[in-house]
């Protein structure tokens, strides 16, 4: 979903699909962007951030990231990713992808002050949680063109029935569909069974949340 939203934002897919459906075809169309050799900044580099970073390689993108702590050097090398401060990421990224958990510290992490530090015409992608971005501040940044376009799979209030973001043609909005696929659900079910099986056999699940000591079943 993150790569889909990045491409949609770069290429203006929501805007130009609406034009085509309205019979305007290429009327008023301007050249859009592509990901080739762009700098993408990940705020949060967990499993989803790493997966997205791997998928950027065919476009020769520069990958920078900010996280609670840097990844091990081997992981950084495998991803060709560079750890930077949040301020450096905001100032240098062409595309900013939100992949961090929602915590008291990350709520409203991107607000007016942060948008002011970004490049003019930056692209924003959010597949984390809606509240990590101050939505009124994002709307203001879109109106001023500080943010060129945005791709959002999450909103602060869900389900959301009414938002100024819905009427902005430069925003792609999805109703939190990141994991809403047949394949994802099937893999999740298999993972549940694998955890139960391994726990019964060894006392340790495949994916322990807090890495407990081995427990005799």
From TrEMBL:
SUPFAM superfamilies: NAD(P)-binding Rossmann-fold domains. Keywords: Oxidoreductase, Signal. This is D-isomer specific 2-hydroxyacid dehydrogenase NAD-binding domain-containing protein. The keyword Magnesium does not apply. It comes from the Eukaryota. Pfam families: 2-Hacid_dh_C (PF02826). Belongs to the D-isomer specific 2-hydroxyacid dehydrogenase family. It comes from Saitozyma podzolica. Transmembrane segments: none annotated. Residues 1-16 form the signal peptide. GO terms for cellular component: cytosol.
